[in-house]
Specification:
516 residues; alpha+beta; 3 domains; four-stranded mixed β-sheet; three-stranded antiparallel β-sheet; 15 helices; 16 strands
Length: 516
């Protein structure tokens, strides 16, 4: 590891558990067998309909898709819902309520999180950062430190084009005679940087192809991926990957519709010219003379203001000239009607909806004719609910970027060890600012339903139900909530005695009408 470029965080020698299968990782690293049963290197790249065979090609394809209007609108909706910038609140905040850290350590962790946001310039470039993550399906940064004084932490985060960086994982396979199985263990992991990108045209990768470039230590790179991989678990994909085929189909159908309209929209004339008993050569010459005679065209030249006689030969969008012999009809001029179904766009709309579904954005958002309505939550479509959950999944995956930065910052500055970080890592939460009106409506309606149920069951409290049961099961209050609310009520009553709680009035009996 000392020969690699970058820095290494020293870890305790951990004995990896033996297994007969490789780890199920979603980083798309190129697996290299560095020893054991079989030597050499191997690798497999994704081939989508014979067009993309390397990681660089598939990322380039994603970026080309981003230029399409429908795809660009969908990406804008996703990024706008995921990253919300406000003048008062922060874009994302660190939540350490579930951790058992001391107040001093919590303060240090929050400070390092603020430093991570500053290194990313997240308040200004949060949109661009998340958009890169969503389109490319991965984010890669070079963590630069002061090698003379690493305790100062990360000094700069420099973005790396993912097409120029490749992760290599060396494994060893040994034979376990007792279990009659092949055991797989990870020996080493590092990155290869190649400024010319990894764009080999073959579907397999040799050792020389993967080792060309600068070897970089694993700890020097901060990487987060989409978590979506291909069927062989060898290449990280973007969420745009499932929209490649619908987008290609939509493009071809739109081009076909334009070509059909251009070719069939105008009405064309058909000239049947009687050539009598003329020989073939003279008949053809006579036909050309007739074409020249009737094809005089006056053209206005906008540059000079002159009107000139522009003689053009026959094209597919103009008239047709057909010779006729004796015994048939004489000279005749007929018209060829234009296309009758030029206004039918059902096929285009069908593939357009397929593209919208593949992009995970509700169709109502993509259709400009549909207005924006802030109605009740039960009037919001299921697609909006699914879209809200999809945004949460994207945020959770994107938050791994903060985890990677925090881990290196806290370890380099001796705030905590790697082992201590692993203990609290799954208890850290990142609260993104919400801008979804549906969430607010849903919370209000849930509270309204609970209060209505409480009002209906109020007459039975103390008879069939206890107050504690009502507070826990109807109002969904936890023990901590109950204790905190009781303390607040007692404090308000001590401050203002007139606010002392008075029992609700007894229910009035329903009058009974006697029918004779």
């Amino acid at each position: 590891m000392a020969t690699l470029f970058g820095f290494e965080i020293k870890r305790k020698d951990e004995q990896e558990l033996k297994s007969f299968v490789e780890k199920d990782l979603d980083d798309g690293a190129l697996t290299v067998n560095s020893g054991g049963i079989a030597g050499g290197a191997y690798g497999t790249f994704l081939d989508i309909e014979g067009t993309a065979k390397t990681e660089g090609e598939i990322i380039t394809k994603y970026r080309q898709m981003e230029m399409h209007p429908e795809v660009s609108r969908a990406i804008d909706d996703i990024v706008n819902d995921a990253i919300v910038v406000s003048d008062t609140d922060k874009v994302v905040e660190l939540n350490l309520d579930d951790t058992k850290l001391s107040d001093n350590i919590k303060k240090r962790v929050v400070e390092e999180f603020e430093e991570a946001l500053r290194l990313l310039d997240f308040s200004n470039r949060g949109y661009e950062t998340f958009q890169r993550f969503y389109v490319d399906g991965r984010l890669k940064y070079h963590a630069i430190i002061d090698e003379k004084n690493p305790k100062l932490g990360i000094k700069e985060l420099r973005y790396i084009d993912p097409r120029k960086l490749r992760k290599i994982r060396e494994i060893t396979k040994t034979k376990d005679n007792n279990a009659d199985a092949t055991l797989v263990q990870t020996k080493n992991e590092y990155y290869i940087f190649n400024d010319k990108t990894f764009a080999t045209k073959s579907s397999s990768v040799s050792t020389t192809d993967t080792t060309k470039g600068i070897r970089i230590a694993k700890d020097s790179i901060i990487e987060v991926t989409s978590g979506v991989v291909n069927e062989t678990n060898t290449l990280v994909l973007s969420h745009l990957n499932k929209a490649i085929k619908p987008l290609n189909q939509l493009r071809m159908l739109e081009d076909a519709a334009v070509i059909y309209r251009l070719a069939r929209a105008p009405e064309r004339r058909i000239f049947y010219i009687d050539v009598g008993n003329l020989p073939k050569l003279k008949a053809e010459q006579y036909l050309r003379d007739m074409m020249t005679k009737h094809k005089n065209r006056l053209v206005y030249d906008a540059a000079t203001g002159d009107i000139r006689d522009d003689r053009k030969h026959m094209t597919m969008l103009e008239d047709f000239w057909m010779p006729r012999r004796n015994g048939e009809k004489g000279t005749e001029i007929t018209t060829l009607p234009g296309g009758a179904n030029l206004g039918e766009m059902d096929d285009v709309l069908y593939f357009q909806k397929n593209l919208y579904k593949a992009l995970n954005v509700p169709i109502t958002r993509m259709e400009s004719e549909t207005g924006f309505s802030l109605g009740r939550s039960n009037e919001i479509s299921r697609d909006e609910v699914k879209f809200s959950k999809f945004i949460r999944r994207l945020r959770a995956r994107f938050s791994m970027l903060f985890d990677e930065i925090l881990e290196k910052q806290l370890v380099l500055k001796n705030v905590m060890t790697i082992e201590e970080w692993k203990e609290i890592k799954n208890k850290i939460r990142y609260d993104f600012q919400e801008d979804n009106h549906f969430e607010e409506l849903k919370e209000q309606e849930i509270l309204t339903q609970r209060l209505q149920t409480l009002q209906a069951i109020n007459d039975y409290v103390g008879v069939y139900y206890s107050k504690k049961w009502v507070r826990k099961n109807i109002l969904q209050q936890t023990d901590e909530d109950i204790e905190e609310i009781d303390e607040d009520i007692q404090e308000e009553q001590d401050t203002n005695p007139e606010l002392e709680d008075t029992p609700p009035p007894p229910p009035q009996p329903t009058p009974v009408k006697i029918v004779k």
